[in-house]
Design a protein that fits this description.
The protein has 223 residues and is α/β, with parallel strands linked by helices. The protein is 32% helix and 28% strand. Helix 3 crosses helix 6.
């Protein structure tokens, strides 16, 4: 398959272009310049591959959760590219991406949601892939590992020291702290995620509130 994948859910811009067994990657911290950098970097990848947009089989994007503005950028660009070349889009959750990167096992992913919260979900990875719980947002102290958890993944464990302190002492932290476009390609190739018309592309926000009030910020600092 020939696929283009993009993720702008963090300060990194992550792009990957696959052509059968070959893959070209751009993965770099761009801070808040996703809107300016994405299309030029996509053009560079296509040129390097000697491939036109219309030759692709689809556009893959990280649908969230993550930074709200970043998610909208990825979705909007994926839709625009797909419309222009009459291609389908494939939306994949960011936590699925982190679970895939963690390796085979029973993985608990915790992704920093800011506002003293994390996005979390449990997975069985490897040949019998399965998401074992819904993706949710919660305070670090409200997250508990399922019985049988063997791996921890995501930047929530780095950014919130109180998050599962006991479990972290006995379970390996698998490492990936941010989504990577190459993992989206592999997940899309699995066939687990539907290809849809770009008009039907959906984002996964998980939570609708994007900022704390002053009182809520003070309460969070006192925890």
């Amino acid at each position: 398959m020939k696929l283009l994948a993009l993720d702008t859910s963090t300060t990194y811009l992550s792009l990957a272009l696959s052509q059968d067994d070959d893959m070209l990657i751009f993965h770099q911290c761009v801070e808040q310049k996703h809107a300016e950098r994405t299309l030029p970097e996509v053009s560079k990848l296509l040129a390097a591959a000697g491939c036109s947009l219309s030759e692709l089989d689809g556009i893959v994007f990280g649908q969230g959760p993550g930074a709200f503005t970043g998610l909208r950028i990825a979705c909007g660009i994926a839709q625009g590219l797909a419309y222009s070349a009459d291609l389908p889009v494939i939306a994949i959750p960011t936590l699925d991406n982190l679970a895939y990167q963690a390796g085979a096992g029973q993985v608990l992913v915790c992704f920093d949601a800011r506002m003293q919260q994390v996005y979390s979900a449990h997975y069985r990875t490897g040949p019998n892939w399965e998401r074992l719980s819904p993706i949710r947002v919660a305070s670090p102290e409200d997250v508990q590992p399922l019985d049988g958890t063997t791996l921890l993944a995501g930047d929530g464990f780095d950014n919130y020291p109180q998050l599962l302190a006991d479990a972290r002492a006995r379970l390996p932290h698998a490492g990936p702290v941010r989504p990577h476009a190459s993992a989206y390609i592999k997940l899309a190739e699995s066939g687990r995620y539907p290809a849809t018309h770009p008009r039907d592309a959906e984002l996964l926000y998980v939570r609708n509130k994007v900022a704390l009030t002053s009182a809520e910020q003070q309460q969070a600092r006192q925890r």
